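Morning, I've got a small favour to ask if you have a moment. I'm working through a protein record and want to make sense of it properly. The fold is given in discrete form, as structure tokens running alongside the sequence. Can you walk me through what the tokens say about the fold? Thanks so much in advance, here it is:
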Amino acid sequence: MLEHIDPSDIQDLEGARLTIVHLLNLVEEMVSENRALREENQRLCEEINRLKGEQGKPRVKASKKPSTTSASDHSSEQARRRRKKRTRRPKVKRIQIDREHKLELDCTQLPEDAEFKGYVPVVVQDVRLTTDNVRFLK
């Protein structure tokens, strides 16, 4: 496998090219041999762990890629990242109205061409605290 390369034998450009090709072939052989040795070492380590009673490396099958024929089945990554706008339902329908108060306006403060276009309902929630004092006679 290893051959002796004498640098003094390289005299011209063609000789340098042949030497470089020879060196690249040697590097390729060493890389493939290294890969095979690493795989064998991994198998042997797994076998030792199995014989010791330890769990080995789990064998996970590669997932199959889905067919790309129907792109409409899957959402794009941008669509998944986009936040959906929340719609809030009004609570005014569920609030019990205790009393209604009509606001009066002094018509003298309004301009001459002002027209009445109806009322705008506005609900204001407030908390009322009242006392509940009881005297018991025994």
